[in-house]
Amino acid sequence: MAVRIITDSVSDLPGDLKSAYGIEVLPLMVNFGEVSYRDGIDLSPEAFFEKLKSAEMLPTTSQVNVGQFVECFERVIEAGDEAVVITLSSKLSGTYSAAVTAAEEMGSETISVIDSRFVSFGQGLLVLKAAEMAREGMSREAIVKACGQLTERLVMLIFVDTLTYLHKGGRLSGAEAMIGGLLSVKPILHVKDGALAPLDKVRGRKKSQKWFEQYLETHAPEFSEESVGFFHAADPQFMEEMIDVAAEMIHPSKIYRSTVGAVVGTHSGPGCVAFAYFRK
């Protein structure tokens, strides 16, 4: 009896990692007006950000529904397997609730649903940990317990390039966005209690990198040689610059690279870079 790891497309897992660990990913829907796309299937991150540039209104997203989870869980049960399902934060989508409802409808005790309380590759980093544990032969119950502990240690920082999309999404007033643009203010966000929240702001891209250097120095006792994740929204060059800083200062055992998808990208816009790690 195998333990399968299932997640949603907001985890932004690179294709090679999904294949390597046999992770099943259920897509959210991304809606530009009347046209809907399966996130990561019909619409790649690159195509999403191209469409976002010319969109007059922000796209909307639709959660993975109960029916999709039921179909997935039926396959798991028919194969005689168990599953650990890790969704994006329940504060940002109804996907977690849909997964719980589907598991209850199936009446099976072999499917466990976890609210990651994160998004994008912050969530993806937790999924990879679960997949590693499943590969090592750990039980479903042990994986669930370990993921609960890992979630408490997970940290995610997001360096935003423009305030335009935060304004479009209702996170900033027009005046704040205009002034921020004139002053070249770069917000720094983090995930707090399952939601995106402001952490700091700097003036200019170079100061974002300097802030990151100071953060790594200040939080040095938190870092171990565990894997870390970097992910970008249509700005691989800035991501690589931030990776160089981290590689020199904290020496992680492995650095994962990924691309921000539609959910975080809708509010961050192109040009953001994010960093996720597990505290000691």
From TrEMBL:
SUPFAM superfamilies: DAK1/DegV-like. InterPro entries: DegV, DegV_C, DegV_domain_contain. The keyword Nucleus does not apply. Keywords: Lipid-binding. GO terms for molecular function: lipid binding. It holds the Pfam family DegV. This is EDD domain protein, DegV family. It comes from Acidaminobacter hydrogenoformans DSM 2784. The lineage of its organism: Bacteria, Bacillati, Bacillota, Clostridia, Peptostreptococcales.
